[in-house]
Design a protein that fits this description.
7 helices; seven-stranded parallel β-sheet; alpha/beta
């Protein structure tokens, strides 16, 4: 038996995504989601979570790649924002280091997103990020500092289920070890549904595994992943069967 945490990313991206995420949660196929706070539908998502008594199951989806920043200084940093002050809508290159002004801007933006999330009434049970931006080497020390100061107990691991290159595997293992050392890793493994179905290694029994999904479409009463196009209504029951579905806020802190 495995302990599964299934997290629906991108809560707050649109009302359509919000309703798809709530639908998969209503079916008890997912208990957790993470909120984007810089989109027009962010407040709608927070209100839905509170109205359905799920605010304790909501984490924050830190975002430096899409939408409009909450703070001013980062809009002047060309690595992150365009001339209109919008995030570039993509992660361009691996970020190994940040300049002094970039560090200040990133610190302000991430902190503001966390504080705004709480202002919307979400306590924040855990953290991950849009386009996995928190995995970048240049953000690690900033991230550790902010999570500790803001008392966010857990952050998503890097993918350690799927196959990858030897160099990436070394980096991911090192990164995850640092999270474990800082008591920020709530799970033993992280990956996608595909990774779980075709793992690169044998996963230990009674381990804690986080799976990432992106509910975004409801068609003929079936919920589909907006990126993989997988039918989550059909796939998730088989994955959960025989395992224990749980939430980040149920983990010991």
């Amino acid at each position: 038996m495995k302990n599964l945490i299934i997290n629906a990313d991108d809560f707050g991206m649109s009302t359509e995504v919000n309703f798809a995420i709530l639908a998969v949660m209503d079916l008890d196929l997912c208990k957790d989601t993470t909120l984007l706070v810089n989109f027009e539908a962010s407040e709608h998502a927070a209100k839905l979570a509170i109205a359905t008594n799920r605010k304790n199951n909501i984490g924050i989806h830190l975002n430096l790649t899409e939408g409009y920043p909450l703070t001013h200084n980062i809009r002047n940093e060309s690595r992150f924002c365009n001339s209109e002050g919008l995030f570039h809508n993509k992660k361009t290159k691996r970020i190994y280091s940040l300049s002094k002004t970039e560090k200040k801007a990133v610190y302000e933006e991430i902190t503001s997103q966390i504080q705004f999330c709480r202002k919307l009434g979400i306590p924040i049970s855990h953290a991950d990020s849009h386009n996995h931006i928190h995995e970048e080497p240049g953000f690690l020390m900033i991230l550790l500092d902010i999570l500790k100061k803001e008392k966010i107990p857990f952050v998503r691991l890097t993918n350690n289920i799927g196959s990858t290159t030897l160099l990436k595997s070394f980096y991911r293992n090192t990164y995850n070890s640092i999270l474990n050392y800082n008591n920020l890793a709530g799970t033993d493994y992280f990956g996608s549904i595909t990774n779980l179905n075709y793992p690169s290694k044998k996963l230990k029994d009674n381990s804690f595994i986080e799976l990432m999904i992106h509910p975004g479409k409801i068609l003929d009463n079936q919920i589909y992943d907006v990126y993989s196009k997988e039918n989550l209504s059909a796939l998730l029951p088989a994955i959960i069967d025989g395992n224990r579905l749980m939430s980040y806020h149920q983990l010991p802190r």
